[in-house]
Amino acid sequence: MRERMGSTAIGHGVAIPHGRCSNFDGVRAAFLRLREPVDFDAGDGEPVDLVFAMTVPEHFTQQHLQLLSELAEAFAEPAFRESLRTAPDAAALHAALRRPRAG
Asked: Is position 64 annotated as part of the catalytic site?
């Protein structure tokens, strides 16, 4: 449903589908590394293979925008995207997602 409002693809094979939900008290997120990239109607035309889906509570207006900004900044780094794409297992993928980035 969110994609009908506009693509959540941010380029370089990354999408960050997101929304607000009244069912949770905190942020919920899931990361997917797709074996077969899918078309997300990205501005750069690249199919998406890295998906970071996120939902925040209805009242998290400013926090929602801050999280999206931080995610977009992280995924803008080629080395970060590469570390996610080449992680050999779930533990390495988790470590790559949690690794502090320069900023």
From this structure: no
Residue 93, pLDDT > 90, answer yes
- Residue 1 has what pLDDT? 39
Distance from C-alpha of 18 to C-alpha of 64, rounded to nearest angstrom: 9
Exactly one of 12, 18, 59, 64 is catalytic; name it: 18
Give the confidence band of 24 by pLDDT, cuts at 50, 70, 90.
confident
Residue 72: exposure state from Cβ atoms within 10 A (0-12, 13-18, ≥19): middle
Specify the pTM.
0.86
Helices 61-75 and 78-86 sit at what angle, rounded to 10 degrees?
80
Q: What is the pLDDT of residue 17?
A: 92
